TrEMBL record, chain A:
Gene Ontology molecular functions: ATP binding; ATP hydrolysis activity
Gene Ontology cellular-component annotations: plasma membrane
Native source species: Planotetraspora kaengkrachanensis
Protein name as annotated: ABC transporter ATP-binding protein
Family label: Belongs to the ABC transporter superfamily.
Automatic annotation (TrEMBL), chain B:
Protein name: ABC transporter domain-containing protein
InterPro entries: AAA+_ATPase, ABC_transp_ATP-bind, ABC_transporter-like_ATP-bd, ABC_transporter-like_CS, Oligopep_ABC_C, P-loop_NTPase
Source species of the chain: Planotetraspora kaengkrachanensis
One GO biological process term: peptide transport
Domain of life: Bacteria
PROSITE patterns (alphabetical): ABC_TRANSPORTER_1 (PS00211), ABC_TRANSPORTER_2 (PS50893)
Amino acid sequence: MSLLEVTGLGVRSADGRDLISDLSFTVDAGSRFGLIGESGSGKSLTALAIMGLLPPGMTASGSVALDVPGMGRTEIVGARERLLNRLRGRAASVVFQEPLTALDPLMRIGHQVAEPLRRAQGLRGQALREAVTTALEEVRLAEPDRIARAYPHEISGGQRQRVAIAMALACRPALLIADEPTTALDVTVQAEVLALLDGLVSARSMALLFIGHDLAVVSGITDHVLILKDGTAVESGALLDVVNAPRHPYARELVSSARELDAALNGLDGGGRS
Amino acid sequence: MSSPIIEAREVGYAYRRAAPVLTDVSIEITQGRGVALVGESGAGKTTLLRLLLGLATPTTGRILFDGDTLALGDRRRMRSFRRDVQTVFQDPYSSLDPRQSVARIVSEPLRSLGLLRDLPRPGRRAAAGERVAAALRAVGLPEDAAGRYPHEFSGGQRQRVAIARAIVSEPRVLLADEPVSALDVSTRVRIVDLLAELRETRGLTVVMVSHDLAVVAALCPQVAVLERGRVVEQGETAAVLGSPRHAYTRRLVRSVPRLPRPPA
């Protein structure tokens, strides 16, 4: 079976509105899956539902199953907190859009990165410090020792997102969920962080669930995509099929909007591609 | 070539007791040749826009409006400047007062700039109503939008309200700070189309701060690339972004995420 199997997932708000209905998709071990939607489409809620992190009052129905080698198959919907805590970080972990809110402003970076390493690998003392340095080096942070001593506000947005990625990867998850990880970043920094994610996911044969609103960004890093609108899947399939021949009217609109902007760049001398 | 409407001449700016955020910046905005200011966070784009908008005075150098140095103290002159140079902000959720009706928001420049003062008092209300209706029509909002409030509109519609407010005084230049970056892609394309249409039909010169090179390419014939407070490259958009000479511009262009090429 697949690493992640979402079957008939529904999420309902406290006042009884359906925020996600009958959503199904699978992510195989080592594969890359993109979830595309505009604001309010339910894509971030899907990530939270997979992690068992839905806000209080929201209820999930259907099934979200994680099948990690060595950990067995686990149903997330309705699971107890203790079981979920064992899965988080190891079976799956998340990188969120805004690294400033993912990091504790009052804690030095080194301590924050150390926490999952201590918890998952039981490291202490010198070994833990070395593991922190290694984790920061793995996300291509130059001067890992300086970064480890810094507070989140003392480093740049791109560096913060690298730290958040280092923390998400600390427990060697089988599935990395990246929820708009580059939306808050400048375009050159975005390109660097995407390249970093791409390399890390390949090197560790992790599966990637990449959530985004920008078709061009998502298409650069995934090979299968699903388009969400108002909590419902309107189209899914191989990336090139969806981008080149969208069938659903909404998918067509999304692709043609993205193409229109892309075409503006094609109009430049040299086609804007280098 | 016509003389510039607004010009920044060797402009520098430093916030209090801080290193300069702009150094020796010179750009010209001429009728019909919209300029995009591109660059990344901290490059000084928004500061430059604030100077061009007359919201701050440069520490060194000058901002010229129709050939004269812009003096923020000269109220009569500033009024004609404000009438000619209007602005749209990034986030339509924070730029519209939630307690005011759309009619009141859009007509605000008419009141603050005293554009209806020459009319007899009884006629002002009707004239304002007509100007608001025309502005709402121009941005593609329904007539009954005037009586509604910002929260009743989506993000894209709110940005249309903000654009209606900006064009109600019939300005020559629209200075927009990331006008579409808070919007979803399909909405973004529609607002870009709207700005392009206003540019064509009203001869509006659109000056825009943006990090989105596709939007820049679609809207502005000129571009100035800023890096750490300096203009590293400027000129025709097609040339600068199409075959960039400066290393930073090249990196910027290369970083733009692209769709897979469509099949031939």
